[in-house]
Sequence to fold (239 residues):
Amino acid sequence: MLKVRDLVFRPIEDGVEKTIIDKVSFDVNDGELLVITGPNGGGKSTLAKILMGIIKEDEGQIIFNDKDITSLDINERAKEGIGFAFQQPPRFKGMTVKRLLTLAAGGSLSEINCCDLLSSVGLCAREYLDREVDGTLSGGEMKRIEIASVLATGHKLCIFDEPEAGIDLWSFSMLVKQFEKLHKNSDQSIIIISHQERIIEMADRIMVIKDGKVQGIGTKDEVYPVLVKGETHACMSEN
Fold:
């Protein structure tokens, strides 16, 4: 379903070329949950943004459902069925939470449906429907609302960049259950960037990225020996 081949991203910083993503290749199968983990600063979030079309790679190819989408922008990739949840969600002054969820769903969405989505990510639904998606919401609230907006659409591939960041333990537990439900009851493919062991343990496969390179990819039993080495183990935590 998703085939990534030899992706390279080399931005110029202070007049010097820096390699952030270095010849990264991997596949994600239909209905598979792939967790990408590894040390901070290793290139995980950059890779996710390249897959969504937010950042343009310098080299490489991205195939999605047998179609070359390398040249497509973020809007075109969204139309192809790819959804994305930012690590730091954007805010939209003047737009209510209900309106955002309705737009994300691509059509009419009842109040009950909106409430179900918000409840699934740990929010007291009716308290949020008419609130604006602006600076009055905390970072954790924004994160959960954005995840709900991604869940509102039947994507073929969902990409979540550190969904656990900025949310409390109770909400995190609800989020894990939501991911388990999504993975079990749909044929969507899911990519989650995470350091959390509870999320890593849900994965069909795990990919470890360090210094912009794939250090290992495979099942938990195959990849855990890589995770427990050095810096990568230090970046993992439990909730």
In short: Residues 98 and 114 are 7 Å apart (CA to CA).
